[in-house]
Each structure stands twice: as structure tokens, then as C-alpha cells.
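ok so dumb question maybe but i'm new to this and my supervisor (M.) told me to 'just get the structure for Regulatory protein PchR' and walked off. so i did the thing. is this what she meant?? sequence i used:
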Amino acid sequence: MVQDSLKSPHPSRAPMAEQLTSDTTGWTRLSHRYDAVRLQYTGELSVDYEELYRINDHTLLRMIYSEDALSEDYRPAQHKATTLSGYLTFVYKLAGNNTLHLPDKRNITMKPGTLFIAYTENQQQIYDSTPPGNVYGMVMLMIQPQGLESPPLTLPREDWPEALLRLQDRITVDPKDAFEVMDFNESIHICLRALVDSPYQGALQKAYLQAKISELICLTLDNMQQRDRQQEQSTLTPYEQQQLTTLRHQLQHNLATPPTLTELARQSGMSESKLKRVFKNTYGMTVGELIQKLRMERALNLLRSTSTPISTIAEQLGYGHSSNFITAFKRLFGMPPKTYQKQFSRLLPDTE
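this is what came out, is it supposed to look like this??
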């Protein structure tokens, strides 16, 4: 369970910049001028401090927090926030409650443990209202899509969760509908707390933030994939669920000549696009990735329990050349299959 709590910030982590107005879009300009900056608000805003970090050319981090609850006499107006064009925006709510007012008049309630994800190709205005007497804590991560495909993440688009792909697809249909809302799990909460409570400064701080943001993105994408799988499984008919189980067994017993995606789709009665989607959401991997996983599991079993030649194992597993099998095995386990087999050869019974 995500806790509704927030610790004191570290005031010396980033250069201080006095913010004398209630212009909440000033951070976008500052983020392009400085690698790290800390804002102090002096007006009747719902936050005391913000920390802004430019992590790399594709990624910005914004942390907003307030130690003191707002006065009960304070009646805040809706504060304007601008989404950056061409960025995926992840908003993680750590403490307090507020409401996001979207351009299409929809309202999103943000409570501790809520994740709001948006993608816009043009800047949009989102208004944020916070009730009086409310502690406030939020982390915003803004990343350009090409940042996911670039080092250190290097995540090809085909490995993105369906929910993330839907955001970009919706842009062409209705830009105002390109957002997702979900709960985030405890692993993400722990990572967020580590970001907010980082004790480092200078070069160590930059390296730490880069590492933690890579971890946060991976945890977030996994959180999205888990939700996709749950939603997909809840919409599958009993017949379709049985077909997926049957297809998996078929792949497991035909590793030498596995059926193609077209053949699997025809057998299941699904279209290829639907089968690809539900297969990945159910098993967490594509058909090709599952075949590779099953082949390696079979290879490990044969290498541990038999003295079968490597070329024969490669043929049984459907590799056209034993060199392809050796390369795949070494890439996954860090050693050639023959070396692995020798480790277990002394345990095999003497056949003479």
C-alpha cells in the first residue's frame, strides 16, 4: 500500500532560484537553461518547493512537494500546467489529493498511488486544483519517445506496453484522449521515495538520478504490462483462453518445426493482430520469444542429463546450424553449450 507521507527535501541538492510569481510554466524555460534548479515559491501556491533536473537530451524530472499543509482559509484557484509537446509525461502522486482538469472537461482525481500518463504533440493546458489543508507531493517524469529507444534504455517500440502504444495511436484520432490513468505498485513507490530522498550532490547525484530514472521507467512499463495482461485476460472468452493454452502446448512439443503465426491464428480463430496482442499480454512475451525460451529450457535439460552431441541438440531444437544454437546459448548463459555440458558429464552414468 502506498503511504500518504512525505519527508523533508534536501535544500542543498540543486541551485536555488527565487520564484516571485505564480507562473507555474516558468519551470519549462528554466529546465532548458539549467541542468538542475530548485524553485522557492513565495505566493499563495499549493507547493513550497520544486526541484527540476534535465537528466539527458530526452528526459526531464520535476519533483514538487510541500511540508506545510495549506491554511483552511485558503481557497486556491485552478493552477495552470503546460504539457510539453512531443513528450510522454508520467505523473506519480505520492502525497495528498488533487484534481486534474483536462482540456476536454474531464476531471481526474489524483490520490497517493495514482499514475497519470499523457502524450501530446502540441502543448496543452491542464489545470490542477488542490483542496485546502492538504499536503502535496508529486513526481513528474517527461521523456521523448525516442528516449525510450536510446541508451541507456534501448527499448524498441515493439517491446513497449500496449497502453503506451495506444497513447501514440490516439494522437491521430483525438489528441485530447491521449492519456491513461492507473494505480502504481509498491516497487514504484519505493523507487520514487529513493528519488525524492536522495542524499547525493554534484556528479554523484546526477549518476544516481540517471540510474533511478532508468529503474523507474522499467518498473512503470512493467506495471503497465501487468495491467494490460489483467485487462486482456478479463475480456477473453473461455474458448479463447483454452486456445491460448493449447497453442502454448503445441509450441512446446514442436520446437524443431514450430507453427507460424499465421497457422496459430487460423487454429485459434483469432486474427493475427489480436493473437499477437493477447499472447504477449497473457504470457509476457511474443510467440518468437516464447519459442526461444522453450528451446533454451529444453537445451539445458538435454545438456544436464545426456551426452547428446551439440549438433544433434541444435537440430532437435530447430536451429538450422549448430553455430546459431551455440551463439544463442552463449549470449544467454555466458558460456558455450559444450562447456555447460562438461560440468554435468561426471554425474552421468557410465554407458560402457
